[in-house]
Write a structure and sequence with these properties.
The protein is an alpha+beta fold. It contains 20 helices and seven strands. The strands form two sheets. The protein has a five-stranded mixed sheet. Strands 6-7 form a two-stranded antiparallel ribbon.
Length: 403
């Protein structure tokens, strides 16, 4: 299906996706002329392509809801996506309430992050899909939380291997419990900026649930988006999240403060560029909704088109190829070419940026060479890891050939 999508004329599908997303988050019905044209042009195969493209960006429940509300018959699998998204939000909300209740009882401060907050800014339940729930909490209680999650039937997917622990349980539960917002492998300035994070937080009403100010949440989300953007890429949902947040709060936000913090964190240009782009792409006026003949309210510049294309071709959580390309770009030589040898050596023999992923290294740095050997054996005996390594090697070779 991915090959079919790549080979299809994606320009129409991309524009339709953006238009439908704009209708959805603005609470607008697609124009009647648009609906008529859509029904003529979209046969079952093209509907499948639009569905798959929406799914790749994890916005299939939103696009499906818009089409369904417009009276357009959608695929059965699309109906299932909508139902699953709604069910998942309900189950997550109930489970998160139980976890927060326990944390309140035990005196553990906590704060919901990312999608848990963003979903409140979407018009209806399920429109903002989530694969997990992210929660920041007092890291002094990490082992206690691990024991509690296990007592609730969760499997420990990762513990003390970075800045968040991961717990999963059937049928849909996946909780990322953050002990910090950024860890050893991340931007050092961000790690320092968000150290002693609790001093920046605002207590809620009752219990020990905290939250950011509106400005600080926005700044944090922009660092998070930039992190993914620079690594494996990030999809159109990131731009959509920024839009729905600004659409409701922009007039109340202190942008002098926001811009100052973004300068400190080194993302000022990124924030401004994305702020302009998300409004150009998703903000609609009544005339456009009625006419339904244009996708964007403003003409995009060449740079804005390039930026939008980056989002549209990244998928919800980026791609392996984009991650490798972005990582290799750090190893450019003076003549502009990429040093493949430097990249390969760093991948084979990682440094202190991996301390968070191997707890023993945090206390015993001299074990690093043994960790390198361990990584080799882990790759030999894990078919999944071998497959990922071979894929990365293939991408590295391709990039080198393109150079």
């Amino acid at each position: 299906m991915e090959k079919e999508i790549r080979n299809a004329d994606l320009s129409d599908i991309m524009c339709d996706l953006l238009y439908l997303l704009g209708c959805g988050v603005n609470g607008k019905m697609p124009a009647k002329t648009y609906i008529k044209t859509f029904q003529k042009v979209y046969d079952e195969d093209k509907m499948q392509m639009l569905y798959q493209f929406s799914k790749v960006h994890f916005v299939d429940a939103l696009t499906g809801t818009v089409l369904k509300n417009a009276g357009i018959k959608i695929l059965p699998v699309w109906e299932q996506s909508i139902a699953k998204a709604i069910r998942k939000v309900i189950l997550f909300d109930q489970e998160r309430a139980e976890i927060f209740s326990y944390m309140d009882e035990q005196g553990i401060w906590h704060m919901p992050l990312k999608g848990v907050i963003f979903k409140k800014f979407y018009p209806s339940i399920g429109m903002r899909q989530m694969s997990d729930n992210d929660i920041l909490f007092d890291k002094a209680y990490a082992k206690q939380i691990r024991d509690y999650m296990v007592s609730r039937g969760y499997e420990v997917e990762a513990f003390d291997q970075g800045n968040h622990d991961v717990y999963e349980k059937e049928p849909v539960y996946n909780f990322e419990m953050h002990t910090s917002l950024y860890g050893a492998g991340h931007n050092k300035e961000w790690v320092n900026y968000y150290d002693r994070i609790k001093d920046r937080l605002i207590p809620g009403e009752g219990g020990l649930e905290y939250h950011f100010s509106y400005e600080d949440f926005y700044v944090y989300i922009m660092t998070h988006t930039f992190k993914h953007f620079e690594e494996g890429g990030t999809g159109i949902r990131s731009l959509l999240d920024q839009y729905v947040y600004l659409n409701q709060l922009e007039d109340a936000l202190d942008f002098r403060y926001i811009e100052k913090q973004c300068e400190i964190l080194g993302i000022a240009d990124f924030e401004k560029e994305n702020r302009v782009l998300c409004k150009k792409v998703f903000r609609m006026n009544n005339t456009l909704v009625e006419e339904g003949t244009e996708r964007f309210r403003y003409t995009l510049s060449t740079e804005e088109k390039r930026l939008l294309c980056y989002y549209m071709t990244s998928g919800a959580y980026g791609t392996t190829e984009r991650r490798v390309v972005n990582n290799m770009s750090q190893y450019r030589k003076k003549d502009g070419s990429i040093s493949k040898a430097a990249y390969v050596l760093k991948r084979l023999f990682p440094g202190k940026e991996h301390y968070d992923y191997c707890p023993a290294l945090k206390k015993h740095h001299w074990l690093l060479p043994f960790y390198w050997v361990y990584r080799v054996f882990r790759m030999i005996f894990s078919e999944e890891r071998r497959s990922r390594i071979l894929q990365e090697i293939s991408i590295v070779k391709k990039i080198r050939q393109d150079e």
